[in-house]
Amino acid sequence: MDSFGNTTPFASNALETKAELSRFLVDLLDPLAAHTSPGGARIHLGHTATHYDETAAQLEGFSRPIWGLASFLAGGGDYPGTKRWVDGFTNGCDPNHEEFWGNMRDKDQRMVECSAIGFSIAVARNKLWDPLTPEAKTNVENWLGGMNDKEMPNTNWLWFRVFANLGLSKAGSARFDAKRMKADLDHLDTFYIGDGWSRDGPEGVVQLDYYSSSFAIQFAQLAYSKIAAEDDPIRCEEYRNRARKFALDFVHYFDAEGRAIPFGRSLTYRFAMSSFWGALAFADVELPAPLTWGVVKGLQLRNIRYWAKQAGAYNPDGTLTIGYCYPNHNMTENYNSPGSPYWCCKSFVTLSLPETHPFWTAKEEPYPAVLLNTTKALKHPFHIATNLGGHFYILSSGQQCSYPVKQGPAKYGKLAYSSAFGYSVPVGSGTLEELGGDNTLALSDDGGETWKCRRDTREARIEGPAPGWLRSMWYPWKDVAVETWLVPPTEAAPLWHLRVHRIRTARELRSAEGAFAIYGQREDGRALEPVEGEAFGTMAEGGNARAASRAGVSGVVDVDGRGRKGTALRTDANSNLMVARAVLPTLLGEHAPGSEDIWLVTAVFGLPSIGDHKGAPEGWSKEWQKRPTLPQEIAALMKA
């Protein structure tokens, strides 16, 4: 009965060819017809709210699927439902029509949706622009051009105005503002910090999440470099050069099964995370070794295949849910409308390519063998990426959102993020069960009534001999300072990483340090119970705790024996992004105030299941018996 309620309408699609990818897109577009307004300009998929108005939310539902539709049409596809979007352009931009989207104001959400519309005009003009009447074309031009004199956030949003003007340019519109577009591009280029990486904003912003890659900046640079190659050749070549460098870092955020490492905000965009790989093909980038078109094809298609099989990502009618691997409003942002997830349609950009393109002619290749069992320090995002022992994850210190964002500490402040286990978010403000404190050191100064987790990380840097370790500071209260070292795994203990914390406190504290949250059910669907050996279940003994299930094994050990107690905490439902029922091996401690440093040394174990195999490979307990070694430089600091 495992398959009952746990399948999708797309699971049988092999998603290996252009035709199969086209069919997946069509299967996503078709259900939208029942939710489309009579005039075609709005798509209403649900009743949850956003910080912006309902008209903008329904415009979002209309516009975001266009990323896929325009690519499909540009590549020679023919979709009978295209008329819905042509009608939508006509009526949504008509000030006298009841479905008018409304004129743009400063920092208006409508600006975001202009990027998909501009892209569609640029690449599929004959199918989406040419059928419009002269009056409708004028209305679309006026509506898009209306953003040129408006204030925009100083972020990746500026790319949305670039694409609005790019579409106007390709349509030959008098509303195209070349001066405005150049100024936006020149300013966006100031976000660049080297080695292919760009911040999501000006100096001082330290967000380098998926917006710096697939969601916005890298994708936009590559799409621009293809569409504007003749008009802006020098800049376009620079963007392709950046992509070549960036790709060699970004590949470490994907695992051999196609999953991307969940990190940061907007994760309800799902397989938009892999759209960078399709954009490389769209822009005809000359690939750097060890990347080949077969490797890139595999990275892109494996990710889409993974999402095509996630039953919780779809409503029964085939529309997308808000959430990650299942419907989950705890992890969303206040700008996630029911139409937001269709940003994933960016990953259909390869449908614009002919069958003769090397992306489609190449034989799909697995994850590059030369990158397996490696660890790499990524200096710009303050990440150390590793896949030793088959577990793909990053250690993280130094990022935070530059403005208030829901669940910010969980999205940017955790100590580790895994492609297999995901991360958790709080579902309440009281108990540890509500906290979702995986991969974090949570502190309480009120006896456990409330808990603080790292949000504002200071003085982050990578130290030590290659690949090094991450070192950073956190100040949860004015009289409490926490210094943390994150040490990646080694070949001697490949499934462990180390965390060292030095706490200086003038107040009494309780601590809770979590490992990876893991699927918390037995094979019969009941909750995990205490067991011995390698059977599915939990273990908590002294300063140790672990949990084993069909998802693999997660565990934590108090290395220096400072009196912390291990427990297998059953977190509240719907806190983890990937599994709705999770268990979290956790260390609990109590710490008195004083002038002396409090040192905590924690070893964290993670071994995910591979492919369709249920549970960790047999014999995993031998790896559990190993213990990582503290680097001499850190050990010396502890003795000083």
From TrEMBL:
Transmembrane segments annotated in the record for this chain: none
Where does the DUF2264 domain start and stop, copy by copy? 17-367, 374-635
Question: Known PANTHER family for this protein?
Answer: LINALOOL DEHYDRATASE_ISOMERASE DOMAIN-CONTAINING PROTEIN
- This one is known as DUF2264 domain-containing protein
Q: Which organism is it from?
A: Mycena metata
